[in-house]
Write a structure and sequence with these properties.
The protein is of the alpha+beta class. The strands form two sheets. The chain has a six-stranded mixed β-sheet with strand order 1-4-5-8-9-2. A three-stranded antiparallel β-sheet has the order 3-6-7.
């Protein structure tokens, strides 16, 4: 669940960001969740979230009756849920491109923790309410998993900022291109069967980080519309 940040502050490129013009999916980060509707195996008739389809490569999805995923899920990652949330990096709130990058990578590190615990307090603090579809979908899924006593296993993440674009003056925001690498992961029901699962994956996605007061918040994570 480590995130390795680009240390260069001079790599800002002058290409206009397409803020709020993205399809909100988190392919590598949320591939396992994008294919999953909790109602399919809850047996309780409760409404569960159904998220958008993941971009290619698609996750491998098992039916509720399927046996556990054949790809071994490293047991070491399962202990992350009880080890507490990632620590905020120093300088994360700096009003600079570097501060925006640190905020984006910290937010990404929160994802496996949120999915395992259903603790969305820090997630909510860093999300732009009613703007970030990715943030809202992840929140709903994490709370549903917790409510139904399912488990999110695996999914260790690495993230690296590969491109920073010029600061957008309209939104006071930066667009970042981030390479996500995620280990195999699964959501398992109380009996230990996979509700859905995903193989290891890697993809570059856009992350939009907006200045809000004295801090940065996540405006959206996803792909360009039409791609």
């Amino acid at each position: 669940m480590n995130a390795h940040e680009s240390t260069h502050t001079s790599d800002v490129r002058r290409r206009p960001p397409r803020l709020l013009g993205r399809r909100a999916v988190g392919a590598a980060v949320v591939a396992v969740v994008t294919a999953f509707a909790l109602t399919s195996c809850s047996g309780s008739g409760e409404a569960g979230p159904t998220t958008a389809a993941a971009i290619e490569p698609s996750p491998t999805v098992n039916t509720p009756a399927a046996t556990p995923h054949a790809t071994p899920i490293p047991t070491a990652t399962a202990t992350i849920a009880t080890s507490g949330a990632p620590k905020r990096p120093a300088g994360m709130n700096a009003n600079t491109a570097e501060g925006a990058r640190k905020t984006a990578l910290y937010f990404i590190q929160l994802y496996p923790y949120v999915m395992r615990t259903g603790d969305v307090k820090e997630w909510d603090r860093l999300s732009v309410a009613k703007k970030c579809d990715f943030c809202s979908k992840t929140r709903r899924d994490a709370l549903s998993i917790k409510k139904k006593h399912y488990k999110f296993v695996g999914g260790a993440l690495e993230a690296k900022v590969v491109q920073t674009y010029d600061r957008d003056t309209l939104y006071d925001a930066y667009r970042l291109d981030v390479r996500f690498s995620e280990k195999a992961s699964a959501i398992r029901d109380r009996a230990g069967n996979d509700v859905t699962s995903s193989d290891a994956n890697e993809v570059v996605l856009g992350v939009e980080v907006m200045r809000a007061g004295k801090a940065w918040k996540i405006l959206e994570i996803g792909t360009e519309d039409g791609q």
